[in-house]
Amino acid sequence: MFEPRLARYPSLTGSYAPYMLLFICFCCLLSGCSDQEYLVQRSDPFAPIKRPFNPETWIGPSPSKRSLNTLQRYDLVVWDDSDWIRKYSLDETLVRLQASIQHGTTQEKLYALAELAFLDAQMLLDDDQPHRALERYTLALVNAYEFLFTPQFQHSRNPYDPQFQEICRIYNQSLEQAMRIMAGDKQLRDGTTYSISVGEQQVNVQLRFPPQTQLAELKFVSDFRIQKLLRHHRTFGLGVPMIGIRGGQQINPAIEQYYPPGMTLPLTAFLHVAYQVPQTGDKVIKHCTLDFHKTVDNSALTIHQASVPLQTDTSIPLAYLLDQPSLSRPREAATNSLLNPNEAGAGLFMIEPYNPQKIPVVMIHGFWSSPMVWMNMVNDLRSFPSIRENYQFWFYQYPTSQPFWFSAAKLRSSLQNIYHNLDPKKHHNQLHNTVLVGHSMGGLLSLMQTLESRDAFWQLVSHKPFGQLQAPQHIRQSLANTVFFHPNPSISKVITIATPHQGSVMANNYTQWIGQTLFQLPEPANLIAKQIIRENPNLFHSTELLTTKTSLDSLEPGGKIFHVLKTARRNPATSYHNIYGDTKSSTLIQKIASSSDGVVTTESAQLPGAHSELSVDANHLAITDATPTILEIRRILLSEPSIKPAIRQSDYQTQVHP
Q: Which residues pair with 616 in a beta bridge?
C-alpha cells in the first residue's frame, strides 16, 4: 500500500477520484482473499525413510565391509573364494553376536549388531511383517545408543569416523520407523509400553509425553514440506522431529483461554536406554523410555555429562498451526477486522503453552493487518536457541478500523487481565518483564501502554474537571479508561516498527472518505460517544477525541494527540527502540513518496528520545520480514540482562524458498 500523493496527478484529483480509490481498495480486498497454505503434505509420507541406507562403507545388499570384518573376527561368517558366507541364519547370528557383546562389549560389535538389525527390519517391513520389524528396529536402536553413549567408549569414540555418522543415521531412521509402526497400531500414546527379547536380553520400552501438555495427536515432521514461510529452520542431531497437537480437557482454563484451538508444539522423540540386571539369573533387562522433548524449551540433552544435540524443526510445527481454521486466511481476518469490527476477533493469544520462566514478547499488528504479519519474523527469531529458550511470543488482534486510542485502551485492559489470570499472586518475575513490539499503528498502541496520561488527554476535549461529566457509571468508566492511565509497570521494552509517531499523510481527505464509507466503529463505542455529547452540551471544547470515526481519521498528521504522545511522561524503567523504513532502493516509491517507507514519512517514523533507532531499506509492508529488522530485534532481546544463555548455542540449517 503506497501513500497517495493525488495533488501530483491532476487526472486523479477530479470528481472521479474518490470512486477510483474506492475501486482500487475494493480490488485489493478481492485480491487478498486467497492465501496458499503454509504446508503441503508429501504425496508419499514414507519417502524420507524409504531412501536406501548407503553408508560410506556400503558394498551391496549385505552388511558393510567393516561389519563383515567384525562378524568374521568372531566366527559368524566365513570368506570363501570371492564372497562372504553366513555360518548361521540371521536370527542366530543376531543372538550369538548379542551374547558376545554381553561377555565383552566393543564398538565394532555394537555397530555390526545395530546395522544387521536395521537391515533385517527393512526387509521384514518390505515383506509386510511390521511387528517383527518393530523388534528389529528396537534392537538396532538400543545398540546404536550404546555405541554412542556407553561411558567406557568416551575417549575412543571418533565423530570424524564415517561409522559414527552412520550409526547416528541408523538410530534416527530406526526410531522413526519404529514409531510409524506404533502409530499404525494406534499405540503412539502416553504410557504405552512394549517388550522384545533377543537371546538373554530383554528390552522394555515406555512412551512418555511431556508433562502438562495434553497432547491429543502426533504427526511426523517428515510428512510435510514448507510452502509459505520464507525460511525453514531446523537443527541436526539425534531424534525424530514431531508435531504435537494439543487437545482434550483444559488443565487451567484461566490460562488456556489464550491458546488457539489445535495449538502445536515442536517436539523431538528420543529413546533413552537404562540397564537392570536381576539378582537371579543372567538375563539382562534394559529399560528404555521414548521421551518427547519440547524443543522450544531445550534443543539439547545431557547424557553422561555430555551435551547431545537433538534433531529439531521449529518451522513445520508453526506452519501446521497457521494452517488451522482458527488462524488461517490472514488477509480475510485483516479485512474482517477492518470492515466488520463487531464481528472481528480481538484479544491476546499464544502459540505455545505459557512458561513462567520465559519473557513474553507481545506483537501488535497495524492497520488492515493481522497477527499473521509477524509469522516470518517469529519463525526466524525462534530459530535462535537463545531466543526460543528465553522468550515466548504472544499476539494481539484487534479491529483496525477504530481510532488507535480506543484500541490502546482495549490493549491496556487485555494486558491487565492476562497478568491477573497467569500470575494472580505476582510470583512470575519474567512475566513482568514484557516486551511490546508494534508495527505501524500497532506501535502507537504499544507506546501508549507506557505513558503517564495525567490530564493531557482529557484536556484535548475539555478544560473542565472530569467530575462534571454527566453519564451512567459504566460510560464514565469507559471514557476514563481511554483518557486517564498510568504506565504499565510490567513492560520493560517497547519496539516500534514503521510507526507514524506524527501521523501519516496516507490519512488524507480521500482515504478518510473511503474509510468513513466502508469502515464502521464498533457499535458500543459509537453509541457511547453520541450519548456523552448529547448529555453534556457545555462540557467539551472539542469532541474530536470522541467523534473521530475511523483509524484513518485518527492518523491524520497535525492532530493534537500526536503532540500529547510526544510530550507525555514515559516510564523511566522502560527502554524504547525504533525501526523505520526508508525505501532508498525503490525508484518507484521514491517518486511517489520520497523519504518514507511508502506510507509513513521518515520524519514521522522517527522517535525522539529512543534508546536505539535503525533505518531499514524496506517498504511499509515488507519491513517486518526484512532481515535487518529481525536481527535488530534479536539484538534488543539478547541485551536483556536477566536472560540465561541457551543450553546449546548451535548453528542451525536454513532452507530459503525462492
A: 581
In terms of Cβ atoms closer than 10 Å to its own Cβ (0-12, 13-18, 19+), residue 546 is: buried
Q: What are the residues whose beta carbons fall under 8 Å from the beta carbon of 418, sequence distance 6 or more? A: 258, 348
d(CA 440, CA 445): 9
Residue 531: per-residue pLDDT: 81
CA dihedral 454, 458, 462, 464 (to 10 degrees): -40
Between helix 17-31 and helix 509-518 the angle, nearest 10°, is: 60
Question: Per the structure block, which three cell numbers stand in for 182?
Answer: 506404533
Q: What count of Cα atoms within 13 Å lies in the side-chain half-sphere of residue 562?
A: 20
CB 263 within 8 A of CB 353: yes
CA distance 494 to 362: 10
Domain boundaries, the chain: 6-35+329-640, 47-315
Q: Which amino acid is at 634?
A: R
DSSP code at position 596: B
* Residues 227/37, Cβ–Cβ less than 8 Å: yes
Q: What is the pLDDT of residue 36?
A: 63
The DSSP output letter for 601 is B
pLDDT value at residue 578: 98
Phi/psi of residue 604, nearest 5 degrees:
-75, -30
Enter the C-alpha cell of residue 357. 520462566
The whole model's pTM is what?
A: 0.85
Mean pLDDT within 563-581: 96
The topology under which CATH files domain 6-35+329-640 is Rossmann fold (3.40.50)
* Residue carrying the nine cell digits 567384525: 70
Give yes or no for a contact between 549 and 587, defined as CB atoms under 8 angstroms apart.
Answer: no
Burial of 115 (0-12, 13-18, 19+ CB in 10 A): buried
CA distances from 267 to 138, 234, 243, 364, 428 (A): 20, 12, 6, 27, 25
